[in-house]
Specification:
single chain, 505 residues, alpha+beta, Mago nashi protein, six-stranded antiparallel sheet, 26% helix, 29% strand
């Protein structure tokens, strides 16, 4: 069992190695190991009899792999699958394709689990992590001084070792370009280690790509056992909504770390401040004095959207000692609004006004937009506050923000439909005035449902054939039996309040 387990670990690690030469996978080495363990090369016939297309199809194997318990059968399937690429495939290099590499990783991982614990799931308390990230992929060759590989080691005491390597002359080993050894707070280091360990303590999908760089990581527990993990530099690992790559970059205060995603994630907007300034000169009917012809109204507005405090604030400075402020603090809502903005292209293009435009007499309208990004430097945009003076996408931005603020409204404390509502008596009838297709005329319908409110949409029988119609409630009144506006027995009744399903139709 130990020999089979070691075989599974050895070859699974090889198939997970993004830098491995396919010759090492298809040459005689695996055959020698399989023969030594007594695995039979039967062209996969035995495994196919039991599991069908799973003998060569990764997706089918994934469906049934947890039911495979026969070690010899699985070992023979691995041997036979390898033989295809060694002997029959058009080119042995096909073994590196995602679907084929994934088949072997899945089968070998299962074999390792049947003969021992899963080595690709971390167990214990993390003491140290070491991450090696290599940014080399397809594309233009880097310059000799360009950083191509980074090494990070973090232990539970807060010690950090960081090294960066440049391409150098392109032959042999990379050249060390930067070294930084320092200490962070123990609690910060423990938080990193715990979140990384949490993610890799459960099954996860390995992402392999051939056109980008790769990462390798060792997680060592307090018992001294190291667990190895590999993947491509496009991984999106999150724990409790926290991105692990961003967590490590922020905690170590090194913004350009490759970590797991290659630092290729798009930038985020952390804060937007829009300052609006209008100056209007008003000529009064009666002169103020001989020297003063105009009265100047200096009016400003400010809109602040802040990711950190998750708030939107709108401030109006109408005049001296006259300031109006509205603040919307919405957990996840403001963050979601900012995440939906394309940081790379936000407010990128401004058409600008031609030279022959005519300005409004005695009035100027100007703006300043300040954008703070997560990675990129702050950007400040200034101009005149008009369609061509503003960024092309400002209208979409304004509508998004306005819809957000409008959703929350102005509350109920000054709403006449709330404070003006009377409670009905036990024997009162509820008459609802409803409007068809936003018509000016309303019609009485009766109901027993106290939950119906002004603005609700309800289903009613309409016309001589009593077909079902959707109408809006525009007013609600209570009448005693003696004061009803229409005979109760001759007034049509509301069927029910509309549900979401009614509008989906």
């Amino acid at each position: 069992m130990r020999q089979v387990h070691d075989f599974a670990l050895k070859w699974c690690d090889k198939f997970r190695d993004q830098k491995i030469n396919y010759i090492e996978l298809v040459d005689r080495y695996m055959a020698d190991d399989c023969d030594a363990l007594g695995f039979e090369m039967d062209c996969g016939n035995s495994f196919a009899e039991a599991y069908g297309d799973a003998v060569h199809n990764y997706e089918e194997l994934d469906k049934i792999i947890d039911t495979v318990t026969d070690i010899k059968l699985l070992g023979s399937a691995i041997y036979s699958r390898w033989r295809y690429f060694n002997h029959w495939a058009y080119t042995g290099e096909e073994i590196l394709e995602f679907k084929n590499r994934s088949w072997f990783i899945l089968a070998l991982s299962r074999l390792s689990m049947l003969t021992g614990e899963n080595p690709f799931i971390f167990k214990g308390i993390p003491k140290k992590i070491r991450i090696v990230s290599n940014g080399m992929g397809y594309g233009p060759c880097p310059e000799p001084n360009d950083i191509v590989e980074q090494h990070i080691t973090i232990n539970s005491e807060g010690r950090v070792w960081f090294s960066a390597y440049a391409l150098g002359d392109g032959f042999g080993k990379y050249e060390k370009a930067q070294t930084k050894n320092y200490k962070i707070e123990k609690a910060v280091a423990e938080n990193i280690l715990q979140k990384v360990a949490t993610y890799f303590s459960d099954e996860y999908d390995e992402v392999f790509a051939t056109d980008i760089g790769n990462w390798e990581m060792d997680i060592t527990n307090t018992e001294g056992k190291a667990y190895k993990f590999r993947g491509s530099l496009c991984a999106n690992f999150e724990v409790d909504g926290v991105d692990l790559s961003d967590l490590i970059r922020d905690s170590l205060e090194i913004d350009d770390l490759y970590v797991f995603d290659g630092s290729f994630k798009p930038d985020k907007v952390n804060r937007i401040t829009v300052d609006y300034h209008r100056v209007t000169k008003i000529k009064p009917k009666q002169p103020i004095s001989k020297d003063v012809e105009y009265v100047t109204w200096d009016y400003t507005e400010q809109l602040i959207i802040d990711r950190e405090i998750e708030s939107i604030e709108h401030i109006q400075n109408i005049g001296t000692d006259c300031t109006i402020s509205h603040k919307y603090k919405v957990q996840d809502g403001v963050v979601g609004l900012l995440d939906d903005l394309d940081a790379d292209y936000l407010f990128e293009y401004i058409e600008g006004n031609p030279s022959d435009v005519i300005d409004t007499p005695n009035e100027t309208k100007e703006y300043t937009i300040t954008i703070d990004f997560n990675k990129n430097p702050q950007r400040v945009i200034k101009g005149t506050y008009d369609k061509k003076g503003l960024p092309d996408d400002f209208a979409d931005f304004a509508e998004t923000v306005f819809s957000f603020m409008r959703f929350y409204g102005f509350g109920e404390i000054l709403d006449p439909s709330i404070y003006g509502k009377v409670k009905r008596h036990k024997n009162d009838h509820i008459f609802c005035s409803v409007a068809f297709d936003k018509g000016h005329k309303s019609y009485y319908y009766i109901t027993d449902d106290d939950r119906i409110e002004v603005g609700d949409f309800v289903l009613v029988p309409a016309g001589g054939d009593n077909h079902i119609a959707t109408v809006e409630v525009v007013n609600i009144e209570y009448f005693s039996e003696e004061n009803v506006p229409l005979p109760v027995d001759k007034t049509k009744r509301i069927i029910r309040k509309c549900s979401e399903e009614d509008f989906d139709l």
